[in-house]
Fold this protein.
Amino acid sequence: MAGLTRSELSTKTKYHKPLLAKAKLKTANVALTDGKKVSLYGATLTYKNNMKKEVSVDLTTLSANNFPKHLKDDTSGHTIVLANGTSFTMGKLLKSDDMKGLDKDESDTADEKGGDKKYPHDFNRGGVAEGIYAAAIFLRFTNKGKKRGAKITEKELKSFILNKMSKEGNSGTIKGIGDNREVTIKDDILLIYGLKATDAKALYDERIWEHWKGAAVKLDGIKQLPKQGSDMVLTALNYVNNTTKASAKTEMDHPIIDWAHIMWDNGVYNEVRINAEGEVAQDETKVDIRVSANNHNGADVDLKRISLKFNGVGQFGQMSGVTWDVTAGVLKEFFAIDDPRLSEDDYIGYIKTKDNKSDAALAMRKMWEAECGITQAGDRLSDSLKTKKGSTAFQKALWRHMSQGKTAKKEEPGVELVDAYKDDPVVYQLDGLFDHCFHSLELKSEYSLSQVSKRSQGKKVAGMDHALIDLCKIDITAKGLGTDSDSRKTLLTIRIKRGDSNAKGPYYRTIFEKKELLHDLIAAGKREYDPKYRPDKN
């Protein structure tokens, strides 16, 4: 059976629209030349460009117009990596009949029970928030008021998004100018953005604008979009309109409105860039919106490195994969343990699936149990955390996973975590983690199991020789801060999470979740906003 090679796809554009349409649908599958069917939802295309540099792009961000640039003759090694981590060369895509004529969005069909259809654009609220915040920041730097400091209103923000950004599509560059004090030369302000296509389509749909403000929205024939706990429009406006109450602020603490003032006041030309391409290089950086400008010497300087979250920060990092070396890597990075008690051979011996790879849940659990003193004497995690070496490694690992990309080529200090939560943004200066002595917090580990739901108990899953098992979690606790310094609080939870099942069975990830005490630690650098500047009340 013939496959769709890079060469075939580069010349026969009729396949582009059907292929990319399927990649945007959770329920759609594509056939492979070996007879298997897989979902491209959440998949990425990787290849080497003409400079032999590896490129990775989310299939959902591509359109029939920009897809061909990733298929040029001077590119090579085109591989599709699925959401579960498995991969195959592009040439294994089957040249099937349904790939030749899928013209409509299959998500537009009514649900199985009939009645209202699902909203046609399967958006991610975090991606939508990125577009809203980027637009608000652009409006701050192009503001015509004195010091570029006049209040940005919802009307201005909405008009800009629906009339300016929408014309560019899900990605583009919008140019504006910024006034300077007592000089005629203007600053160039550039908004450079790349949103997922589904997020952009939803953001540009005026009918559901109130949904971004937290309201439930019901369209004719469409299932209701439920009420949300956060108003991302208001939080974005508060972020660009308000000043900090902090008694002392460093250059890194400057809120956006201060930087706009500095660009107005410095009396020289600047090119300011608001780069919102968080979907482009997710593994290389945690920065979703980068605000930069040229300094007086012509060099580029980052004014803001913003990591944007929506509706509360919980999970902030993960390690994909189920091999021995993944857990060994977590032990070394977080606990300075470079000699795991459970050997790789013993680890493999615990895996009960036919292929020794699909389900390593038991092996991962046994590996953690050995370190936590459950199956072997002595809690090595707690013992290591009591040392200066172990507590320092843990501190650096927290900072790295919260503020740095997995494959970052260099460290980026000064990343600001902005949580669009409820009606106000909560802003954390992540470098503030280094303001605390972790060794004095008396860190220790607490092992427990997350039980399989009653509905799943005793049931086998495709590709597995055994039923689902309980998954382990490790809480890292510490002594609290301030007046509560004698109480013990949870700082971090490391746990194994079961993902969606596929033809080979479920897959697993090691995830990291922020808990109460970690919130307290990073909140030490939190900006509080003055309510008198709230645009909905002024």
